[in-house]
Write a structure and sequence with these properties.
InterPro entries: DPM1-like, Glyco_trans_2-like, Nucleotide-diphossugar_trans
Number of domains: 1
Strand content: 15-25%
Protein name: Glycosyltransferase 2-like domain-containing protein
Pfam family, one: Glycos_transf_2
CATH class: Alpha Beta
Number of strands: 9
Family: Belongs to the glycosyltransferase 2 family.
Strand order of the largest sheet: 3-2-1-4-7-5-8
Structural class: alpha/beta
CATH superfamily: Spore Coat Polysaccharide Biosynthesis Protein SpsA, Chain A
Order of helices and strands: EHEHEHEHEEHEHHEEH
Largest sheet: 7 strands, mixed
CATH topology: Spore Coat Polysaccharide Biosynthesis Protein SpsA, Chain A
Helix content: 25-40%
Radius of gyration: 17 Å
Keywords: Glycosyltransferase, Transferase
């Protein structure tokens, strides 16, 4: 397989609208793309298969037969990345909330020696668009509590727009993780504890107005419980 050293992992379920926006943009970058799809029924799969025919050497997909969860989809992608010897892994949403054009800035910081890049909504220059008020408040409170509880000063613990070096991922992939969104801040904490050099970069998180959010009260509660179980190093 003719490949780059950088892999973008995109977990999806019924996000064809977002995929049509971001995949053509990603294909213009010097990266490989892996979509992990959990049985989408909105036409995503025919689009993905068709795009594979056009970009066979730098675009791959894994189709799973059921919705096995957010964390599971990412770890499926992580295993693919490590098995194929990618050096840098990028995590991003499939709904268009994360801007592919920020990736070049992220990667320039990897070249400058950083091991973990976090796209942050909560540092100077970061912002959130189209978030319901309750989501903004709950997200801010959660991240404030996480900063108080953790031993490092990451501002956006729940960000899903992340770049991580494979050397760090290898150290933390077999740790204990929550099944839901809580694994995002667990992963950051494990990376920091393993010695990763961290850089936060401001992003504009453009929440999709016409897309039903996967985040709900149950997921928020599970993430909060996961946070409570994490101890400072």
């Amino acid at each position: 397989m003719n490949k780059n050293n950088i892999l973008v992992i995109i977990p999806t379920i019924n996000e064809m609208k977002g995929l049509k926006q971001i995949i053509p943009k990603l294909s213009k970058l010097n990266v490989d793309i892996l979509v992990v799809d959990d049985n989408s029924t909105d036409g995503s799969r025919p689009f993905i298969v068709d795009f594979k025919k056009k970009q066979s050497s730098h675009f791959n997909y894994i189709f799973r037969d059921s919705n096995r969860g957010f964390r599971s989809a990412y770890f499926c992608g992580f295993e693919f990345a490590l098995e194929n010897n990618y050096r840098t892994i990028i995590m991003m949403d499939g709904d268009g909330a994360h801007d592919p054009l920020k990736i070049a800035e992220f990667l320039s910081n990897v070249d400058n020696g950083y091991d973990l890049i976090v796209g942050s909504r909560y540092i100077a220059g970061g912002q959130i668009e189209y978030f319901p008020f309750w989501r903004k408040v709950s997200s801010w409170i959660f991240n404030w509590l996480a900063k108080k509880k953790m031993s490092t000063q990451i501002c956006d613990w729940t960000s899903g727009f992340i770049v991580i070096k494979a050397d760090i991922l290898k150290k933390i992939i077999y740790k204990d993780y929550a099944e839901g969104f809580g694994f995002l801040f667990q992963m950051k904490k494990y990376a920091v504890d393993s010695g990763a050099k961290v850089k936060e970069i401001p992003i504009n998180f453009a929440n999709c107005k016409n897309t039903k959010s996967k985040f709900n009260a149950r997921i928020a509660f599970e993430a909060f419980v996961t946070l409570l179980k994490i101890n400072k190093k």
